[in-house]
Amino acid sequence: MAVYTEVTDDALAAFLADYDIGTMVAFRGIAEGVENSNFSLRTTGGDFILTLYEKRVDPHDLPWFLGLMEHLAQRGLVCPQPVHGRDGAALRHLCGRHAAITTFLPGVWPRRVRQSHCGPVGTALAKLHLAGADYAPRRANALGPRSWMPLLDRCRARADEVQAGLTLELDHALVAILSAWPEGLPVGHIHADLFPDNVFFLDNALSGLIDFYFAATDLLAYDVAICLNAWCFEPDFSFNVTKSRALLAAYQSVRPLSAAEQAALPVLCQGAAIRFLLTRLFDWLNTPAGALVTRKDPLEYRRRLRFHMSATDGRAYGL
Amino acid sequence: MAVYTEVTDDALAAFLADYDIGTMVAFRGIAEGVENSNFSLRTTGGDFILTLYEKRVDPHDLPWFLGLMEHLAQRGLVCPQPVHGRDGAALRHLCGRHAAITTFLPGVWPRRVRQSHCGPVGTALAKLHLAGADYAPRRANALGPRSWMPLLDRCRARADEVQAGLTLELDHALVAILSAWPEGLPVGHIHADLFPDNVFFLDNALSGLIDFYFAATDLLAYDVAICLNAWCFEPDFSFNVTKSRALLAAYQSVRPLSAAEQAALPVLCQGAAIRFLLTRLFDWLNTPAGALVTRKDPLEYRRRLRFHMSATDGRAYGL
Fold this sequence. Notes:
alpha+beta; 42% helix
């Protein structure tokens, strides 16, 4: 769930007075999302999302995220738009947190991924990569390859509590992945978390992308690899190459992958799998009992990782 | 939080096809509520709440709850209205749960109770009591006085883990309360859970009541006592007699309390305090680590209980 901070009605009314979007009509906490507190907000001016940024988000990054969302929308990508206050500022303060109001996006995220979702996701990801090309500010990927060994080191002492032999397997995999990590591939702004719960569909068409708070400047093809992990495994963790082929073909119809990007796909997918495995493992070992957040099983990503470790080239993904 | 059951987009679309409210536009889990799964649902026909009833609600009671809500609304009380499917049924099935769609109620519940909230709450409660008078079906209060000793018995072995001496204090209080419990007071349908998060306000006026899933047939003045517990204690658990006086005066302007009801107010308030103390205590001792629900501190109600135990008559409440 995601309401870590309670907003009093008085504080909200005062907050809204700094905007030109009317007065409050309804206000409810949203259960989705794990990093920030999100509220569905209706005013006499329309529907919005109020986000309070919680401690896992570095406040210095917030202007970059909000700026990226505005930049992408100006270039036709449908994503939430920061609403500016009367003084022009979109990033404000509420109840001791950084806070922003963004526009409401119609649509529903697919709880069960069908093949027909994967093409539109590939297309949207490629459009995002192209639309971001002239957004000048950069943000280093705090969860990129350089973060993975330090993250494993912080889990090392207790990783085998989750599964015997896990530390050894991750050590071997990580050394192999980092030594094979590609250089010279096209770099741009990536979403870095384009999982099904961040993609809305309406009437069988993709209606928008949300949650840009992991976005960063990194290898574009790594973002594709994250999507292959996020969209192309079945609930039993078998890899569905038909979904993968649909996602990649649609992506390439907008932004063709270079030969080097195609060749790097297995190691990029391995990296994406180990990135989510490591953050889940860290959270698993460090989430206090009684916490509001449901822990996600890190071993689901060991299953994915093993598939990618067995891939020798792009053909494994339907290229 | 309150999304225990995940609803797939396919299942939701099929579910909506049985209604005449258009097609899906947006769908988000709601963080509020602890008993059921609630979703904010927007269709081309408007805004609704989808509720999936989870295991703590007895499905046999659901027609009674939905019928009460319709009955009260027909008599002018603003509360969510069950939406009927094309076949006329409001209570349906979705994802292995009983489910219902109700109308969306504008408004925001007060996170911080002000004196100005308490009059409107008293008025609304009295109107609810009058409006319910001709709703013929009855529902025994499963959390009424007869349930309290069995509930304490189920906590007895471990209650002192929460606070040394708690079992003894509760035993003494409960024996005193049950022996003084009034007979012959007016009976009707009570909300039984009219806490601030179940009362919406809009532009400083009460805009509606929600969450009738603890409603039952019991002493009307006991419902008043629940509200005194819910609305008239400050965050430091001191009793605010100004709020209490406002709530009671407004209630009595619509439905005057009889002399017997007024005289019983201290014991009714004691009973209300021990009822919430006991259910919180039970949940505290039985909520598994890592559960989605935040446990609420039972000792907050020991503070309230002690106040009410010291009250000798209605004057303690501003009567």
